[in-house]
Amino acid sequence: DIQMTQSPSSLSASVGDRVTITCRASQGIGNYLAWYQQKPGKAPKPLIFAASTLQGGVPSRFSGSGSGTDFTLTISDIQPEDFATYYCQKHDNYPLTFGGGTEVE
Amino acid sequence: EVQLVESGGGLVQPGGSLRLSCAASGFTLGDRYMDWVRQAPGKGLEWVGRLRNKANGDTTEYAAAVRGRFTVSRDDSKNSLYLQMNSLKTEDTAVYYCARVYCRGPSCPWSEDYFDSWGQGTLVTVSS
Fold it and tell me: Cβ–Cβ of A46/B64 closer than 8 Å?
């Protein structure tokens, strides 16, 4: 099975910073990668699919890029409501697999 | 408005069974792929299983960790999704979410195969 590895596992940021999270697949997955945001005690919220397509209603300060094995989620000008844990997920085949998460604090 | 509401979680002994429900509103369950995803306490997300839509024969897929023990099904008259969990193990302890797959048409290309709506989750604790 393809493994998804996120880095870093946590990071500290200040309001207004530009934040970058990396997700690496153990094998190529094309551009079939999604990103989710999760706040404590809440369900995940979809942000991006197909590596770079923003889910409706997601602020444009969120962006995704990459293909093959290396992907990034960038939050430009991070806002207070963006402090959360972020997960990547491959959606190219079964099993669907998530990365281990990156906590932005 | 799309809404997913899970129920049925609780405390169960190892080896026991439990059935989770996910009541959907705002759309017809049978038209969409639906999945279960779980999250162990303090851990990351783990995909559990899938039920495809009627157009794709209501077929299922499961993660290796639950295959043969868990079954995903649907009751169209109640617009509800279910997860039957048998032979439960302590490592099945988690919050279980039902999630709708985005795919808009009867088929589901991988390019659209991500989760666009989630329920609030229900906690399953497997312990003696």
Answer: no
Nearest CA in chain A to B110: A92
| Pairing of β A33-38 and β A85-90 | antiparallel
The structure tokens listed for B100 are 């709708």
Type and span of the H or E element at A49: strand A45-49
A35 vs A49: CA distance, rounded Å = 7
pLDDT digit string (tens) for A51-73?
999 999 999 999 999 999 999 99
Give residue-wise pLDDT tens across range B67-82: 999 999 999 999 999 9
Rounded to 5°, the CA angle A28-A32-A35 comes to: 115
CA distance B44 to A88: 11
Distances (CA, A) of A22 to A1, A4, A61, A66, A71: 20, 10, 16, 10, 6
Residue B22 has phi, psi (to 5 degrees) of: -140, 105
Please spell the DSSP secondary structure of B5-55, one letter per residue.
EEE--EEE-TT--EEEEEEEESS-GGGS-EEEEEE-TTS-EEEEEEE--GG
Residue B106 reports pLDDT greater than 90: no
A49 interfacial to chain B (CB closer than 8 Å) = yes
